[in-house]
Amino acid sequence: VDIEMDGLEAYKDDWLEFRTMPGDMLIWHPRTIHKVDGPADGIWTSYRRVLGGTAAKGGSLYHDKRGTGGVLSDLGRHGLEDGNKLQSPFFPSIYPRFNKAEARERDSGGVGRDPRDIVGKLGGLAGKASGDKFASFFQVLGSQAKKDQ
What are the φ/ψ torsions at residue 45 (nearest 5 degrees)? Predict the structure, then answer.
């Protein structure tokens, strides 16, 4: 996002910066403009471990994004169809209470990624012009390979 764009004038000087430490959690509203700056040369001097996720409010619906290219997060065999209520051990409830049935399903190994879905998603990427979406990922991957040599 270019902060100089029309409509963003009110936010131009409204910057916040957080210096996180190991173990910190940073949560932002999905409509917040955000980014993580890495080293200028693209080479991380230490491993960066990040757990990312998305929260959905109660009553949210599942939207099947197969074939869109670049969507690698939905690799499970949860059985949901486009428009179904987002309710499954693959999408655990965390509020207002822990769901023990969902936890049992996960603990029993019933929740996971399937190699067939991974292959299908990668095949979809090859047919799409989605290289820009993954340029940063491959740049970091390449810089790590250089560091390891």
Answer: -85, -10
Q: 58 CB contacts (<8 Å, ≥6 apart)?
A: none
Tokens of 132: 């820009």
Amino acid at 64: D
Coil, helix or strand at residue 136: helix
Predicted pLDDT of residue 66: 67
Cα distances from 48 to residues 32, 41, 84, 128, 137, in angstroms, run 23, 15, 35, 29, 13
In terms of pTM, does the model score above 0.70? no
CA distance 143 to 97: 42
Task: Count each helix (H run) and each strand (E run) in the chain, helices first.
Answer: 3, 0
Distance between CA 45 and CA 43 in Å, rounded? 6
- Find, among 131, 140, 88, 132, the residue nearest to 112 by Cα: 88
Give residue-wise pLDDT tens across range 48-93.
666 677 788 888 998 877 666 545 556 677 888 889 998 889 888 8
**Using alpha carbons only, how large is the chain's radius of gyration in Å?**
19
CA distance 86 to 89: 10
